DNA sequence: ATGAAAGCGCTAACAT
DNA sequence: ATGTTAGCGCTTTCAT
């Protein structure tokens, strides 16, 4: 900035103002400054700006995996709301591991973000403490935490699966299995499995048809393998609910390879309303968890909190059951 | 740090050393300092550190879309190599738009990253200039740029499709169509289409069976719609190559809905070796572009360049044709 | 192994 | 509308 100030014959402070929109500055002065900056190949230094002004334009976000369309949608929603207001998302992946999440949160907080959104409501004790002490808005997403740290934008994974179970039972399925969600690392998957078990029990049905599909993220391939085991070990199963549409699609393909007709011989339900569930043949019954909306609402909530307008309270979304051809 | 220094009776400089691994410091002094820091709820300020030391631990990365498994794999590869060395990825999405890329690059450079990796070799003139002037390693990926700005880690999209065309022709297909890649925004998709046209012409075949599938990213649904048009408008087509596995899978489902047998009545090829291509029934013939490897090699190249060891030159990867059931 | 002084590049606060 | 002064929280550099 000093160079530009010298070149244009103004003070560094004026140069500073020229780069900040909404500052009191003569239009010609600003144009001359911006022109000089471009000629000098000047690049504004956010680091110094952030240090002096004691604020950054970072919003920290942690998600379990980068390679998941649901979380990508959430980040997309967040990003569209926050980028428009000049914020930069600082993204980290926990790989479905709370220890990794703790490390990540610690590092993200060192960058002094203005707010932080984390996926899920389960954290290490130290991570929780770090978030509590951070003195910035903390939003937990994709869950309804028993004891929220700050705010949350989520839904009940257990209730969402219960909704599908209720539907399956209502249309006549009785011997219903569940694939995935038993790895304790993926708490949302585990919640879905717990919801499945509780719902079946409430209907007086056997809730022991549980197929382990491995550690999250559960792939299409693992869904297919799990369906293979289900068909071998519990061949009288009438319907299966999978922890996600990806594993559900894998399960569907395994049925196709074995000549098992879906839904006649085996009904399949997924979770997450991924694109594939809407286009596969047959299309998959699933639950839309409003992934993008979670991001948009989180972004809006963050903006409100930063503006001191505590208008939005916590947000509990209602997942939507989508019945398609893979079940009746 | 001053607070911690006071509390432990040392100078702020010693506190600073306690947080930096590999510094000359008494073990007990360090332990006392770290303990005091934890008690005070101290969080290290990267902003100040970065300003004074004139270096950050940011590596800037731009990708067209967050919601694409191929780019996610590349970021995953980059991340695994660079996080292990303490770097933080600063990620931005261009939405397949070079103007947006320019804005993004400008903002990313303000954070003074140590290196920047961008997807593709086509940029606005100003973006190119910004990268040239940045005085940090610049890596272009997913492409072999005609005039690289700095380094590149990529492959020829045109040649990769040519390889599939050669195979299709060798096994007897003659009336071959292409879906996607006509939106000029997605330069890699356009390169694939150009490669398709050139290859067909070299075989003396008609290269006019081109179906527009809309602006990138091309979804499964758009692939299905495109296949619908292809079957209606050019019903004697024997094989189709799609710009990605996602559109190829959509095309496959459209065949299934219409009772068109794949590959007997219509062979299908995709691109990118997405998980779905390996598990769908039939499985999809595709091209593995080594997405994760692009990220890993880019990360390794960046580390070498930052260490001043110019050992790796540019990297041109060889995409691999994978023939599966959707073609013969 | 530790400390003292100086300053990274901006901008808050105040002045004109 | 513009300028002056001081300082954000660290780390470089030099000293002991």
Automatic annotation (TrEMBL), chains A, B:
Q: List, alphabetically, the SMART domains matched.
A: HTH_LACI
Q: What protein name applies here?
A: Substrate-binding domain-containing protein
Ranges in coiled-coil conformation: none
Organism for this UniProt entry:
Rhizobium straminoryzae
Name the CDD domains on file.
HTH_LacI (cd01392), PBP1_GntR (cd01575)
From the broadest rank down, the organism's phylogenetic lineage runs: Bacteria, Pseudomonadati, Pseudomonadota, Alphaproteobacteria, Hyphomicrobiales
Question: Pfam families from the xrefs?
Answer: LacI, Peripla_BP_3
Asked if the record carries the keyword Ribosomal protein, the reply is no
Which InterPro entries does the UniProt record give?
Answer: HTH_LacI, LacI/GalR-like_sensor, Lambda_DNA-bd_dom_sf, Peripla_BP_I
Q: Where are the transmembrane segments?
A: none
| Alphabetical list of SUPFAM superfamilies matching this protein | lambda repressor-like DNA-binding domains, Periplasmic binding protein-like I
């Amino acid at each position: 900035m000093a160079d530009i100030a010298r070149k244009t014959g103004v003070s560094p402070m004026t140069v500073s103002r020229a780069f900040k929109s909404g500052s009191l500055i003569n239009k010609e002065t600003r144009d001359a400054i911006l022109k000089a900056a471009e000629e000098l190949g000047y690049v504004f230094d956010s680091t110094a700006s952030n240090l002096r002004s004691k604020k950054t334009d970072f919003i920290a976000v942690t998600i379990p995996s980068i390679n998941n369309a649901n979380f990508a949608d959430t980040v997309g929603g967040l990003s569209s709301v926050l980028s428009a207001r000049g914020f930069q998302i600082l993204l980290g992946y926990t790989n479905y591991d709370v220890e990794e999440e703790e490390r990540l949160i610690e590092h993200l907080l060192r960058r002094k973000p203005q707010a932080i959104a984390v996926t899920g409501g389960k954290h290490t004790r130290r991570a929780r403490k770090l978030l509590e002490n951070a003195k910035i808005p903390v939003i937990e997403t994709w869950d309804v935490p028993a004891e929220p740290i700050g705010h949350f934008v989520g839904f009940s994974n257990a209730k969402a699966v219960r909704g599908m179970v209720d539907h399956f039972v209502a249309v006549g399925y009785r011997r219903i299995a569940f694939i995935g969600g038993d790895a304790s690392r993926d708490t949302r998957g585990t919640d879905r499995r717990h919801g499945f078990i509780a719902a079946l029990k409430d209907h007086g049905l056997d809730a022991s048809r549980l197929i382990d599909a491995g550690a999250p993220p559960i792939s299409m391939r693992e869904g297919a393998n799990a369906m293979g085991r289900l068909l071998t070990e519990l061949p009288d199963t009438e319907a299966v609910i999978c922890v996600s549409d990806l594993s559900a699609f894998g399960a569907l393909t395994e049925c196709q390879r074995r000549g098992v007709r879906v839904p006649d011989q085996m009904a399949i339900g997924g979770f997450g309303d991924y694109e594939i569930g809407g286009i596969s043949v047959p299309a998959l019954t699933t639950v839309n968890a409003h992934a993008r909306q979670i991001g948009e609402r989180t972004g809006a909530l963050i903006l409100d909190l930063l503006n001191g307008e505590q208008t939005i309270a916590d947000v509990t979304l209602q997942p939507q059951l989508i019945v398609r051809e893979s079940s009746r």
